[in-house]
Amino acid sequence: MGDLRDNRLTIITGHYGSGKTEFAVNYSIKSLNSYNKVVLADLDIVNPYFRSREKAAFLKNMGIRVIGSSMMNSSMEIPALTADINGAIDDKTSKTIMDIGGDPVGARVLARYSNQISMQGYDMFIVVNANRPETQTVEAVKRYMNNIELSSGLKISGLINNTHLLRSTSIDDLLKGHELCQKVTEDTGIPIVYEVAIRSIADMIKDPSIKIFPIDLYMREDWMS
């Protein structure tokens, strides 16, 4: 895959367990090939695990700035959203990636920024894992997409096939997700922009029509399955 050609402001959303944050981290690292300044804004108030801000030091060492919600205390999910996020949205010199909570409640965080975001050129990509019960059918994916758009006040511009079973992922998983996303594209006109696979699987995909995005697993420790 070559350098990224997406809009400077890119929103990544997806259901819990879709692999959304893993993609957002890998996407941020890939963005360093195209931008001198990369910002990852973590606005995920839904998922208490595997948040991108937990890798802030690692990403900072790579040249990526992580900003996001700060909690009142470790047991409360009440975000104090900072002015840094406003700056990142408006900063035309940076590639800004927004990692958004994976359900309509999480997407409502975006609503307070929707007018500001709409003034920019933006993409909003939805990560689809066909192995998750919430997004296993075309109708379920379309319903989920519609709920995200209604909650956020923004439009989805691309699908990301990230059908996986973590390190047990096979080519068949990726192809299963490819077929599902293709059907969603046929119904909605929203294209598949990336198809995610860990590198061992990505190297086996020879179909040039599949836009493979190879990833490394940064968000899960080696001992995790």
* Extended strand count: 10
Structural class: alpha/beta
Low-confidence stretches: 71-80
Query: Please, how many domains?
Result: 1
> Class, according to the CATH hierarchy?
Alpha Beta
Reported by name, the CATH topology is: Rossmann fold
Tally of separate helices: 8
| CATH homologous superfamily caption | P-loop containing nucleotide triphosphate hydrolases
Kindly describe this structure.
This protein is α/β, with parallel strands linked by helices. Helices cover 34% and strands 22% of the residues. The strands form 2 sheets. The protein has an 8-stranded parallel sheet, with helices on both faces. A two-stranded antiparallel ribbon has the order 4-5. The longest helix is centred in the C-terminal third of the chain and has 18 residues, at 171-188. It is globular and about 45 Å long.
